[in-house]
Specification:
seven-stranded parallel sheet; alpha/beta; 14 helices
């Protein structure tokens, strides 16, 4: 087993070689990786079966669903890599050009960050997404997956590295840490001189640990306490469809809805319909019903539901649970979101253009939705092929992080002997 320090040193040594590969070389290698994932699906599924079996009784069903792979999901991983290969290469893009008063020519060009460390949790598809995006953007990656998905992630990287070797390329362009103890996470957080940027992707605890303890630059990605506000001027059927999708299509992901705010003028009409849609209708179909946790005013309308406590409005449930609050106005909705949002994705449903405009202007989140589900906050959906994470910070990158967000820039100054 390689130590984390050995992997970091190999990654740093490989960085200059990756930065000079041509777009064609990178794209050919990416397509080879995509093919290799599908060709080695049986081995990946066997490794994943070990992870799923180990998780039973330890993780809730929705989290096991995040962990589980099948042939369709592996095909989706390969498709994501092919979509990344088809995107324009960001490296070398000229961002600005100028000639100074003294004849110096100044060109601002996009360049890789260098070595990117990524600490993430249970989703093994993150492994291929991160490897592909880093590689295409000219960055060497050092991945540190969670213990729950280690067998799956390790096998995915083994396949991708083998594809690189078949292309006569350095396999150390894509790396995975073999130690899943806390020590390896600490080593990545403190790898000054080896890691140029650290990206944590997971729950609130992981992200907080990285932000508070990292000695290398850290890009904060999102826990998602995502809100949907149903305005008094909302189209009721539209709101029901949006909420059902945002809450139930995949509740274990960061862009799933966790809080529903409803204007008091429509609450008595809307909330019983919402309860029927998310509870009774789903049970009739043999699907998991959503547990509704209501504030005092909503509980008067839905007396059979559970009373919410204050923590419920600050919790990323990642499950079939939805906190509900009745508000007096769009201004109160905005104030609540501002106080409780994690600045990931928040939505308003309304046919009132002035309410839509106010919400869009005042909500300080990476993605603000007007009459659409929060589930679209995703690199693939935003045309980035896939994503390295959803940044909820404001410096350098915000929202779904694709190729351009994994780059920096430098100035190339051409002269003819000028001195100052």
């Amino acid at each position: 087993m390689k130590t984390t320090q050995e992997i970091l040193k190999a990654a740093k040594a490989a960085a200059s070689g990756l930065s000079i590969l041509s777009p064609q070389q990178k794209n050919t290698a990416l397509l080879a990786m995509a093919d290799a994932l599908e060709e080695n699906a049986a081995a990946i599924l066997a490794a994943n079966a070990l992870d799923v079996e180990n998780a039973k009784g330890k993780l809730p069903d929705v989290m096991i669903d995040r962990l589980r792979l099948d042939e369709k999901r592996i095909a989706g991983m390969a498709k994501g890599i092919r979509e990344v290969a088809a995107l324009p290469d960001p490296i070398g893009t000229v961002l600005e050009e100028s000639t100074l008063y003294n004849g110096l020519s100044v060109t601002k060009k996009r360049v890789p960050l260098g070595v990117i460390g990524i600490i993430y949790e249970s989703r093994p598809n993150v492994t291929s997404d991160a490897g592909a995006l880093c590689f295409k953007s000219g960055n060497v990656c050092v991945l540190r997956g969670g213990r729950d998905a280690f067998n799956s992630s390790f096998e995915i990287i083994r396949v991708m590295r083998a594809a690189l070797e078949k292309q006569s390329l350095n396999p150390d362009f894509i790396n995975i840490v073999e130690d899943v103890s806390r020590q390896s996470a600490t080593e990545l957080m403190t790898a000054v001189g080896y890691v140029d940027a650290l990206i944590p992707r997971g729950g609130a605890g992981l992200i907080r640990a990285c932000v508070e303890n990292a000695k290398v630059p850290c890009i904060e990605t999102g826990t998602g306490i995502c809100h949907v506000y149903v305005d008094k001027a909302a189209d009721i059927e539209k709101a029901l469809n949006i909420i059902e999708n945002a809450k139930t299509s995949r509740p274990s992901v960061c862009n799933a809805e966790e809080v529903c705010l409803v204007h008091e003028k429509i609450a008595s009409t809307f909330l019983p319909l919402l309860e029927k849609r998310l509870c009774a209708n789903r049970e009739e179909k043999g699907l998991a019903a959503v547990e509704l946790r209501c504030d005092a005013q909503a509980l008067e309308i839905l007396p059979n539901c559970k009373a919410a406590n204050e923590r419920d409005f600050d919790t990323e449930f990642l499950d079939y649970i939805l906190a509900i609050k009745v508000v007096k106005s769009v201004d109160e909705a905005i104030a609540h979101v501002s106080a409780h949002s994690t600045h990931h994705s928040d939505c308003i449903v309304s046919e009132d253009e002035s309410a839509l405009e106010k919400f869009a202007l005042c909500i300080d989140s990476a993605a603000v939705y007007l009459n659409a589900s929060t589930r679209f906050t995703d690199g693939g959906e935003f045309g980035k092929g896939c994503e390295i994470g959803i940044s909820t910070q404001k410096l350098h990158a915000r929202g779904p992080m694709g190729l351009e967000e994994l780059c920096s820039y430098k100035y190339i100054v051409r002269g003819n002997g000028q001195t100052r």
